[in-house]
Fold each of these.
Amino acid sequence: MGEFELLERVRERLPAPGPRVRLGSGDDAAIVVPGGATATSVDALVDGVHFRREWSSPAQIGRKALAVALSDLAAMGAEAGEAYVVLGVPTDLDEAGCLEILDGIAALAAETGASLAGGDVTRAPALTLAMTVVGHAPSPERLVTRGGARPGDALVVTGELGGAAAGLLLLEGTRDCGVDPPIGGSTPQSARGHEGEEGGGGSVEGERGRLIARQLEPRPRLAAGRALAEAGATAMIDLSDGLGGDAQRLAEASAAKLEIEAALLPLEPGVDAVAAGAGSDPLELAASGGEDYELLAALPQERLAEAAEAVAQREGVALTRIGAVADGAGVEIRLPDGRLSPPRGFDQLR
Amino acid sequence: MGEFELLERVRERLPAPGPRVRLGSGDDAAIVVPGGATATSVDALVDGVHFRREWSSPAQIGRKALAVALSDLAAMGAEAGEAYVVLGVPTDLDEAGCLEILDGIAALAAETGASLAGGDVTRAPALTLAMTVVGHAPSPERLVTRGGARPGDALVVTGELGGAAAGLLLLEGTRDCGVDPPIGGSTPQSARGHEGEEGGGGSVEGERGRLIARQLEPRPRLAAGRALAEAGATAMIDLSDGLGGDAQRLAEASAAKLEIEAALLPLEPGVDAVAAGAGSDPLELAASGGEDYELLAALPQERLAEAAEAVAQREGVALTRIGAVADGAGVEIRLPDGRLSPPRGFDQLR
């Protein structure tokens, strides 16, 4: 199957694009009429670097590629708009596999209101996905950069931390539970488990599946990002590389100091147990494991309650105050024993 | 050098972005305030598939990746806006090589008025460039799709055809002239040669360099595309895969027939000689060789002179009438001997 035929098959499977898209895939370029301002981000995932085909189904790989890209838009407080995909296909991935990847992308696009508006398919030595996503806002002032945190602001984080790193440890078999990790075709339910929509009950296996889903099927916090932007967030970043490094980046961009209370970090249930089994510190998984794709934001103290309510209502996750913005530079972490030296993980980064 | 450090070095080298870019590389996403409508296209180039590192310098590879992407915007009649690059770096490409690629991209961006507004760098098994480009127009109606050609329209092409295919034959050594192809660091002068800015005189070596430059350093016809859009072009496409296949696509999208006179095709000087040496038909190089990145457009007959003058003035190349749009479907080529069967090349495609 040639490039043109594959693209044609893909186009047939796409849902109708959103109202801003005047012309979708199939011409020289997509035509879009943006509202006020756009936020644009690109992200690439390569087999063996960012994922492993033996751990993920093609649909999971496609879904994660789009999720990781959309997470950057969430961190701007933007509305998801258009997505463009470059698919580099190795010789051992057949047409069905390619279409399954694109179905995974299309499924998350539909869930988030994004339109898959264009793409390119090429041969490549390893499976490669490069996603470009464009988000929208009524004006550039409504988008939240990393650079506006002010001394006195509260520092908050959405959802729970450490789950993706714990899931990776489980996949790597560091914690041998005698149960194989779910390879490929893992259920959509597991993806939603970490959203708290699954009543299911804290069993080790339920937790195990949920932690692995946090690694393989991250969800962009788009609704939370918009809620935080509307609640006056002064700076925001998504936690892709880990709280330690990402907090440093926000501190640098804002020319301020971030003071974090380690005891306040919201650990994903099960992270403690996985860390214990692997001889790791759960705080390290939460602080430097990365890939949780939660949002770290600064916002005025007086708007904390309003922001927490909006995030809970619109994203279905908690908003946790983990510290404050102060005069100065860098990131300072107060450990549970009161010391001010950073825990492992914070100082390993960068 | 890690990803963050490389991105930091890249950012230091970028020229100031254009006025639409409110926030460039370095945050979660770039912030842009588009005017009316955007045209967005993505293109990926992979070593061994789209280029060969032994034939091109890193700067040439970067330049070509952006040129190929911008050519799609030229075909919409859009103004070049922002470019976003994903760079997949193999272990045998060092930091200097990466920066040289990005310098090549930045140089063409500066020449075309595009802003390099974001990117991502990752490890990859083969050098991979995925470019996303965003063009602008005052309204969606000002952009030219492939779908509006009307019976009675003239069919025109910018510049000259077959040069890129002839250059590829020269690089592949099909025509052994006893002179090695210029590897890497080929001169910027050669890139400009096919613009007609070089007075230089028809010598075999001058022609040889010019043909190779058409292959390695294509130029997006952005000024011609805008001139054609303003002159009322009803449909437009860039010639990336070859006139034969690309004309088919325009015919299909417009639900019309394209009648092309083979004798009218503007052959790049030197293509005849290279074709003769390689035992090929020069018409085949012009029709199916691909990668000339000229524009094929339909426009009302009465605006032909105005369009040709504008293209000559703004792009410095000729606009040649090669046929007409008629009722029907498909592409029909009248050969120099009067027959109506398609020449080799036209029927090989799709």
Amino acid sequence: MFSQETKIGVLGGGQLGRMLVQSAINFNLDLKVLDPDPNAPCKSISQFEVGNLKDEATVHQFGKTCDVLTIEIEAVNIAALKRLEQEGVKVFPQPHIIEIIQDKRIQKQFYKQYNIPTADFILTETKADVIKNVHFLPAVHKLGKDGYDGRGVQIIRTESDLDKAFDAPGILEKLIPFEKELAVIVARNEKGEVNAFPVVEMAFHPVHNLVEYLFAPATLSEEISQKAKKIALEVIEKLELVGILAVEMFLTKDGEILVNEVAPRPHNSGHQTIEANHTSQYEQHLRAILNLPLGDTAEKIPSAMVNLLGEDGFSGPAVYEGMDEVLKVSGVHVHLYGKKITKPFRKMGHVTICDSNLEKLREKAIFVKNTLKVKS
Amino acid sequence: MFSQETKIGVLGGGQLGRMLVQSAINFNLDLKVLDPDPNAPCKSISQFEVGNLKDEATVHQFGKTCDVLTIEIEAVNIAALKRLEQEGVKVFPQPHIIEIIQDKRIQKQFYKQYNIPTADFILTETKADVIKNVHFLPAVHKLGKDGYDGRGVQIIRTESDLDKAFDAPGILEKLIPFEKELAVIVARNEKGEVNAFPVVEMAFHPVHNLVEYLFAPATLSEEISQKAKKIALEVIEKLELVGILAVEMFLTKDGEILVNEVAPRPHNSGHQTIEANHTSQYEQHLRAILNLPLGDTAEKIPSAMVNLLGEDGFSGPAVYEGMDEVLKVSGVHVHLYGKKITKPFRKMGHVTICDSNLEKLREKAIFVKNTLKVKS
């Protein structure tokens, strides 16, 4: 049963935590947040503590006063979470699932084991291992652990790229000549109730591997769309995860859907749900971990999302150029992440654009992308 | 030009301030809030200071470190605000306008002076004055100052009600046999740009004079709707107010629109804009006081709003009954105000319901009203 007295802890105080806190205000829930950065985005809007998320004692200490503990980043100490779980704290997503997802090698084996469609892959231990598998190219080489926001991923098309390989445990994955990159956010509460948000499509920055534009809903046939949702729901049900799960997928040129990777938390591909859907991904995550009924995921209006990255060549206190111009555009929602300092390609915020006219939506998204700049 | 470094102060830390703070998070603006109650709703989500809003020194001290100072309640010290204004702080709404609105006697005279349609009235100084004007009944008797949330208002239908009259300066206003109560929120920035939200209609609790249901948009002819907006815009332009202004109006049985009263701040009649409109009243207020372009006020979807009042007969730590049931309903958005203690008829939160089917919208609103209860 809902109680505003439930003590909820969040590991990680970045923008995802920030938007989770912002959503929790509606339920009178004062979230407690742990982050190593004393200036993390959650700092001034939550009960904020500074500490290392990978340190067992710190995480255990932080979590033991919570009724429910959740994450906004996967790189956290699992041993502490398992201890807390044994001590009766509800840890959602469950620690053993975070452990699976933390390591892309284990994650990929999980898909294989449960017949979830995914690109073929080879486990590699060292750089030499990657070089040995030259026959497998073109491929994507990913570090098993600690990849983040495009880091820890290298595209190795030909022999001449082999030098980029990581000399650490990873996977070598067949490069998929995909038609589109899709994402579906699914949710599951403790009762086992599940549901899926509409499928969205993303356009990535060609070099920095960050989402540049997102469109919701994706332009897909009903069949493909249902297939994508079905696969995403299969993943969360096989994992028996409590919380939300963002499932990133490739739609191949021959209409196949392959799971790329998943994130057991609010995700960049769900920001637009704040304005465009009946329930936001943040509220859905809270509903799931508090065992409340899941909210309706339907769209109120089509939307696009543009990440606001620090402009290349600028480092220092952030200044937003073009703000007035974009605020003049109808249906524009600016979200800044509380970061005072900008760096090249740092995620400083995002903008959601809502418009029932898809043509105008696209034009507005491009206008926002080209107009709003983070400089210093 | 927009800067995330702009220091904004808010006088009042109640639910309106809380939702303003929640909205300001999107712009990286850390709001500083002053409220006499150490447990005010804004307490844990802002830079919060405890102090008397009617004390000149306290308000002056609080305001002098701000670039922009605003209010979420009208009962504030005007002398301090006028000093701050002279010292270069941007005080929006402007102090002389708050002063007009604070006193219903001056407010009414303002309407008269500018030919803004409003119910006929008589200024009264004492209870004896009211009794003397028995020929004016049936009437509504209002205290000039310090009325709030239904307090300070008495309906005096016949001679036998005369004993309820306040023995203090007030107004005696002709009781309007109205068809509907309407409200329009309008905004104006420093550049003088203005716009209006769609007209909403309200149903009040018959005894406690608090909004029970709100429907947006109101069911009105286009002609009446345009007339209501035009009058509301006239009020904000005549006042030359910077910020938002909620204009409450009566639609009389013969299609006339009369201004009842105004509030120069976010208002109970605009909560639903958070989910249902392109721009929320809170963001609109921020845009107006920061001299940013005003946002599009259009609706994304029709909505209803239900105030969540403390159940009669319960005082103490709040417990929410029926939360699971209402959260199961599609399009329901619960907003709790961060109040730990409930009292009979205390405003503890509100629920917005969005549905494009107007029939279902009404049913859902009634279901929410009858299901979600604040007890202790």
Amino acid sequence: VQTARLETFSDGVFAIAATLLILEVRVPEEGSLTNGLLHLWPSYLAYGISFATIGIMWINHHALFAQIGRVDRTFLAINVLFLMVIAFIPFPTEVLARNLHGDARQAAIFYGLVNVLMAAMFSAVWFYAAVGRRLIAEDADPRVVSGISRSFAPGIPSYALATLSAYLSPWLAVALFGALAIFYALESTIFSRTGVPAPDAADPG
Amino acid sequence: VQTARLETFSDGVFAIAATLLILEVRVPEEGSLTNGLLHLWPSYLAYGISFATIGIMWINHHALFAQIGRVDRTFLAINVLFLMVIAFIPFPTEVLARNLHGDARQAAIFYGLVNVLMAAMFSAVWFYAAVGRRLIAEDADPRVVSGISRSFAPGIPSYALATLSAYLSPWLAVALFGALAIFYALESTIFSRTGVPAPDAADPG
Amino acid sequence: VQTARLETFSDGVFAIAATLLILEVRVPEEGSLTNGLLHLWPSYLAYGISFATIGIMWINHHALFAQIGRVDRTFLAINVLFLMVIAFIPFPTEVLARNLHGDARQAAIFYGLVNVLMAAMFSAVWFYAAVGRRLIAEDADPRVVSGISRSFAPGIPSYALATLSAYLSPWLAVALFGALAIFYALESTIFSRTGVPAPDAADPG
Amino acid sequence: VQTARLETFSDGVFAIAATLLILEVRVPEEGSLTNGLLHLWPSYLAYGISFATIGIMWINHHALFAQIGRVDRTFLAINVLFLMVIAFIPFPTEVLARNLHGDARQAAIFYGLVNVLMAAMFSAVWFYAAVGRRLIAEDADPRVVSGISRSFAPGIPSYALATLSAYLSPWLAVALFGALAIFYALESTIFSRTGVPAPDAADPG
């Protein structure tokens, strides 16, 4: 009950931010339509990476909230700031899509910096709740809680390194952004180091 | 509980993708307004077909989930990919609407290919859950489950044939896309071959 | 349970369609900002009438669903068609806002025709469920059900008359569209003729 | 139950209005990308203030509804009008972002007037429900209810003063809009004067 209404608002922002991404893909106006559609591949790529990133953040946000038993005003405010970054993602996505054939390096750095900020705000959401078990549910398993805390360690450095790699090559950076999304989706590092079943894999009942 | 949060996010993406379709219908800028509004019929047609398609996918998505008892990480990731295709639909819809008086064939093929991809991802969602009853609810009727599995057979070939028909005539392809939407809406083939009542038609309680 | 998932999707489409209306209000580009903002009054007016209309349809849609106990496939399909019209409203709203200083008559007629279609589809939703109590809940009060049925009588003629009044004066038509929204909001005609309390006014418990 | 469906619609409008704000941040078209992104700071600032404002209104809206036990038709209509103002916010936000380097004073006054209207409508929502405990839940603590009523006192004057300060300096006004958002987020004035725990800080159960 305490967390349900926060989750409803969060679900809305995640779903809308992900769906608004499509607005950055613009119909080609001139030349052969097939050529125009093929030349839009940077838009498709940016759409795919950002949609996957938001989708995975949504999955993990829900998994975190399964451990949280109550909320306070500060936690609500931190969550609003986190959602402010999630809802911002369509903008760097469009910047990346528009500039992959031009200022690709600057666009990739901007895209990466927003991802670093997203990872930092997500850590703030979790650690505000977890430090001293401030908002953790009474019946939450301590091993799951400390496992989640440990799993946050690589998030910010990974996105920071991917961002810095744009100085070597913007394409490398984009490849790393995509790899990070796939990695978090398939490996679910956040929840697999605890030695206990992931919340999502438990039997119903 | 297990599937509820996935359904909330999915409901959001379906509803937003369907409602964003209207943004492709642009106010005519010059000439008589009435003429301009009449000449927009390709936009209305594309809006109607895509809205119906997303609406029907949403109905069927819910019907499938009535058979599913738990979720795992891979299933969540497959669903995010499926929703990525659903949220993409406003783009090929706008491509189709803008080009029905021009490159109609190429636009219809692009629109059709996205529908084939949608049908393929929807099959992936179902068969990942259904093979070996991996995620099927304990109390799900095996006849309903196998009936749903059989009902997926015509999906990909139908959309593929409609797409290929654009080489004969793009208008034929558009007519087939519309017919497929109406067919799936009214016939509900997916659920009528099982010999048991469709889940939606059951009495409450 | 039967109707809950349909209501979730409907809530989403109503909320998104209402919120997307703001996209038709465009920032003035030239001249004094204050003058530009004042000259946008047709946009504010169209925004207000359409937002109120969608909001009231949402209230009434929920009130109808309180009487409905189960759904079938045809009912789902009719609802998708009804929501298709709701999600379409941002377009005639923008047409009206852009043309109140120009082709006001044609714009008002187009706006009115979409409202007539909306009222017709809303009637189809109700009467498909109500005729022979096909989908009415077992415990629904017959006086409430027949009261709702009677209250649908003035809907289509009212919007049709408002539309036709545009031939006298488009301003009259716009005034009538606004009056209809206010009338349905404050009088709640649909539910006040039954001699029983409106569902929303009942005590909780 | 009585208020749940109103909250669902409200959650949707809050979440969509907040997420649509990103559409006012436009990709720079010419010159160095980094320079262009830096020069967009008025857009980022307006986005941040408006997102925080909508987020805080959403938190407070939910806290109010925790005290409300039933709804009537007039209350629903007032809420639709309130949500009409919330959904309008993306427009003054874009006006502010586009004009901070130009007609900053006029833009800040317009932005402020919409905030005054928002505060006034929010007061109307609360006092319609609270006067004579018209719609207050039976078990609501009278001290909480009167504490909320007192906490509304500074809202309209604060936003009015911030708006008027634009005649001294538009930058002062923007700083005050930001300060008001932070103040309401962190101080939660509305709920801290009652001498009882804020609803959100209570233990679950």
